[in-house]
Each structure stands twice: as structure tokens, then as C-alpha cells.
Design brief:
mainly alpha; Growth Hormone, Chain: A; 21 helices
């Protein structure tokens, strides 16, 4: 059965879309890569620039905050400067600030450069998505979203692996300097290939009264939310006065900004688009997708590093099979999009993600590399079948002159979902580990015969190694306590994977509500 709604025909670009797509995708790939490439290099940055490990996390936070502020403004800036000029301007600013990040002589200078890098990079994700959606014909919309999906899903996974290899073999500065030659080449090709969209609405800044109040409320709200999510676990969440203040400011700022922009005659961010049923529901789906994607992508490498003793490079290799599977399955999903209703593709993706998370929940302290990589590979199948259908359903009913606005909003939803997913997942593990430890230590006392016999056996082993009797007894107790801690943390990770699997079930009712756009070249199976 074919739905009555159809995707309008775009004007055919003068240049083959497959020539433009790799260049645009590369720009977005670099930007998304920089959200994670410096993660494993933080200890090296702290040591090199005389800062603490805690302070070095601002290298990540500053970039994410600046990124979040710019993302929803994509439509306004595109209308003000034109698609080509704005996208190339963002690419140039991102490349130049990457150079300064790599050359930063002090920690404060690096933070300032990272903020500028985040401001420049914030326009690349939604800009690339809007361009790809615009240059491909309706029957190829799945292919366009698959191209962008490879960027968004693979880049965060590749970031820590590439960052670890660069840091170990060169220096942390090359995590940023690597962007410079790629950025220059990308700019060169963009100048020839990229064209302005004739359907894009245009505004003249001199004749437009800019909504500074709406922008200020949104910027303060998003910045407070991002800092709260990033620093919450270290500050013990709402036990900290700073986190409580940030939470209040975030809620008041974001709610006020949405209300103000919704009722403003010329909003700087067109939140009224969320009132469009399909786009609003798909945006909610992308929020959930971002949370589960980044949450699971964070927990698995953390687990193998803390529990199994993997280094950062080997932990990145555990994630690599998932990225490879996504890379190979995305084109298949793009092929299926015009032929099968998006809700069934999404439900299929949910099924495989739940299977993968169930497999992760069966891991233990003796899990081998193959088992870990297989879990991630199975999850890669599910991720491929989620990202493209959600984006296709979201953009299928968006007017072409609103693509830039829509791409900024839905990318912001995915990024915020990712920040929420990471923060809640890590916090969940810490809380559950404490709970399991409190339960396990109830059996670690001298009234337990098993405990006494284990202490005696371990103590005797230490004595055979030359340790004094008293010292061997203390060492045996410490060894058992370390085992309790490891087991409690492992049980907490298992609980977290089970919890994420349950959260995935929320995606199913969201998928069932979505309408599927019609494609003129092929009927859609409902």
C-alpha cells in the first residue's frame, strides 16, 4: 500500500550528487570525529599543558557546548548567508581553529580555540544533512540519509581508536592538526562543487530585526544543560549547588526559548516545526536513538578498560566491528527505504539492538575479545536500521525551504540525547555498583565459613611467596575486597545493558506512529 503523501521533486543539481556527497560527508565526518578523538588524549593534554585531569575534561565540554549552541541556528544562518557561503565559512573556521588547537601554548588558549572550533563545526552536521537531502532525487532519499548515517554513527566510534593511535605514535596535538590538510582539500572541492539552493528562503540581515532575546535564552539554556550533564557525575549530581543551579537555568532557559521562539513572528530557531506530527515524532525518536547509541558506545569500552584491563587502543578495536557493520549495512537500508515502510525497518533495528544488549548482559570478567566484538557487530546491524528510517520519516514531510531549520533541530536532539545517555549510563553504573557492593560485603565477614577458608588459603599462598604472617592476612583480605569491587562493578554494567535494552522498547510505539513518505519510483510496503 502506498501512502498518499509524496516527496516533492527537487531541482536537479548541475553536478552529479555522487560527486558532491563524499566531499560534504567528509566535512561532517571531521566535525563528528572531533567530538571523541581527544577523549583518550586527555591525560597527555593535562601533562603537557600543566593542568589536572579534571580540568582537561573542559577540552571536551567546551567543544560540545559551543556545538550545541550553533546547531539549531543552522536555518537562520543559511538563510542569512546562503548555503554555500555559510557551509564553507563553517568549514574554514573549523579548519583554522583546529590549527590553533594543535599549536596552543597553554591550557586556557586550547579551551578558547576549542570553543571556536565548536562554533565552526556546529554548522557542518546539519548543513551536510540538508545538502545531501536536497541534491538527491526522491527515490534516492534513503541513499542520501544512509550517506549521512555512516558519518554520524561511524565517526564517534572511530574517534577514540584514531585518537589513541595518534597520541601513542605522534603527539596529542596531531589529534587536531590532522584536520588542517583534510580541511583545506575539502574547502577546495566545496568551492567548485557546492551550489546554493534556489528554494532556500533568504533574509537580509540589515533589514531583519534579529531575535537576540531568543538566541540568548537558548544559548544559556543549552550551555547550562551541556555543562550539567558533562560535570554531573564528578560533582555528585544534585548534591552539588553548582549542578542544582545549572539544572534550574537549563530548564528555565530552554523552556523560555522554545515558548518565545514559537510565538515570535521571525524566530531565529523555528521550533514550530516540531508541531508537524511526523517531524516532531521523528525528532523524539532521534533523541532516544542518540541516548542509546552514545550510552552503549561509552559503557562497553569503559567496561573492558576497567574490568578486563584493556588499553584505550584495544578498547577502540572492540568498537570497530560495529562501525564496519554499519558501513556495509547503510547502503542496504538506503535501498530498502523506498520499498518498505520506515516503521518496520525501525522495529527490525530495535530487535537487533535488544539482541546485542542482551548479549552484552551475558558477559563476565572472563569474556574474550571475540565475544565483545561480536556484541558490537550485532548492534551495528540494529543501528544501521534506525538512523536512516528516522531521518527519512522526519524529512519526508518537511518543505524544501525548511530543510536547514529541520536539520539543525533534529541534530540538536540527537546530540542532547547522546549527552543525556552518556551521563545517565555512567551514573547508573556507579549507583548500581555501590548497591551491589553493599549487598556482597554482607557475606564478607568472619562469621562466614567460606570467607574464612578463602582468607586462609590466600594468606597461605602469600606466605609461600615470602610474606610475613600478619602482612599475608591483610593482603588476603585486600585481595577479596578487590574481587568484591570488580564483581559489583561488572554486575552494574550488566544491569546498565539490560536497562538500555528496556529503553529501546520505547522506540517501538514511536515508530508505529510515524507515517512513511511515498516515493514515485517504487511502492512502499506498509
Amino acid at each position: 500500500m502506498t501512502t498518499a503523501l509524496t516527496i516533492e521533486n527537487p531541482p536537479r543539481p548541475a553536478i552529479n550528487p555522487w560527486v558532491i556527497a563524499p566531499v560534504v560527508a567528509m566535512a561532517a565526518f571531521m566535525e563528528v570525529l572531533d567530538t571523541t578523538i581527544a577523549n583518550v588524549a586527555l591525560p597527555h593534554i593535562a601533562g603537557s599543558l600543566a593542568s589536572t585531569i579534571d580540568q582537561s575534561t573542559w577540552v571536551l565540554t567546551s567543544y560540545l557546548v559551543a556545538n550545541a549552541i550553533v546547531l539549531p541556528l543552522n536555518g537562520f544562518f543559511t538563510a542569512a548567508f546562503g548555503r554555500k557561503r555559510y557551509f564553507m565559512g563553517c568549514m574554514a573556521l573549523f579548519t583554522l581553529s583546529s590549527l590553533f588547537c594543535g599549536m596552543a601554548p597553554s591550557f586556557n588558549t586550547l579551551i578558547i580555540c576549542r570553543i571556536i572550533q565548536g562554533l565552526g563545526g556546529g554548522g557542518l552536521q546539519p548543513g551536510a544533512q540538508a545538502i545531501l537531502r536536497d541534491i538527491f532525487p526522491p527515490e534516492k532519499i534513503g541513499t542520501a540519509m544512509a550517506t549521512y548515517g555512516i558519518v554520524v554513527v561511524v565517526a564517534p566510534v572511530l574517534g577514540p581508536l584514531l585518537g589513541g593511535w595518534i597520541t601513542d605514535n605522534f603527539t596529542w596535538r596531531w589529534c587536531f592538526l590532522i584536520n588542517v590538510p583534510i580541511g583545506i582539500v575539502t574547502l577546495f572541492f566545496l568551492s567548485f562543487l557546492l551550489q546554493d539552493n534556489p528554494n532556500q528562503r533568504r533574509i537580509k540581515l540589515r533589514e531583519t530585526k534579529i531575535d537576540y532575546l531568543g538566541f540568548g535564552l537558548l544559548a544559556i539554556g543549552l550551555a547550562s544543560l551541556q555543562i550539567m550533564l558533562d560535570r554531573g557525575e564528578d560533582a555528585d549530581w544534585f548534591a552539588s549547588p553548582l549542578i542544582r543551579i545549572l539544572a534550574v537555568v537549563a530548564v528555565v532557559g530552554i523552556v523560555s526559548a522554545v515558548w518565545w521562539e514559537w510565538n515570535h513572528k521571525h524566530p531565529i530557531v523555528n521550533f514550530r516545526m516540531l508541531g508537524t506530527k511526523n517531524f516532531g515524532i521523528a525528532t523524539l525518536g532521534m533523541f532516544l536513538f542518540g541516548g542509546i547509541l552514545y550510552g552503549s558506545t561509552t559503557l562497553l569500552p569503559l567496561m573492558v578498560q576497567r574490568m578486563l584491563g584493556y588499553d584505550s587502543k584495544l578498547a577502540g578495536m572492540v568498537l570497530a566491528p560495529g562501525g564496519m557493520v554499519v558501513f556495509f549495512f547503510m547502503p542496504l537500508v538506503g535501498f530498502l527505504i523506498p520499498r518498505i515502510a520506515t516503521k518496520w525497518l525501525i522495529i527490525f533495528g530495535v530487535f537487533w539492538n535488544i539482541v546485542a544488549l542482551y548479549m552484552m548482559s551475558k558477559l563476565n570478567l572472563h569474556a574474550d575479545f571475540y565475544s565483545l566484538a561480536m556484541c558490537r557487530a550485532v548492534q551495528g546491524v540494529g543501528l544501521a536500521f534506525l538512523f536512516v528510517p528516522f531521518n527519512t520519516a522526519a524529512f519526508g514531510f518537511v518543505p524544501r525551504d525548511k530543510l536547514a531549520d529541520a536539520s539543525g533541530i533534529i541534530n540538536l536532539a540527537r546530540n542532547i540525547g547522546g549527552s543525556v545517555g552518556i551521563s545517565l549510563s555512567v551514573s547508573f553504573v556507579q549507583q548500581m555498583a555501590q548497591r551491589h557492593q553493599n549487598y556482597l560485603v554482607g557475606s564478607v565477614n568472619n562469621l562466614n565459613a567460606v570467607y574464612r577458608s578463602n582468607v586462609a588459603a590466600i594468606s597461605k599462598a602469600f606466605q609461600h611467596g615470602g610474606m610475613a604472617v600478619a602482612a599475608a592476612g591483610h593482603a588476603a583480605q585486600a585481595d577479596i575486597y578487590n574481587t568484591v569491587q570488580r564483581e559489583s562493578h561488572m554486575m552494574a554494567y550488566i544491569d546498565a545493558f539490560r536497562f538500555l535494552a528496556l529503553v529501546f522498547l520505547l522506540v517501538i510505539p514511536v515508530a508505529l506512529i510515524l507515517k512513511t513518505p511515498s516515493f514515485k519510483s517504487a511502492p512502499v510496503v506498509e
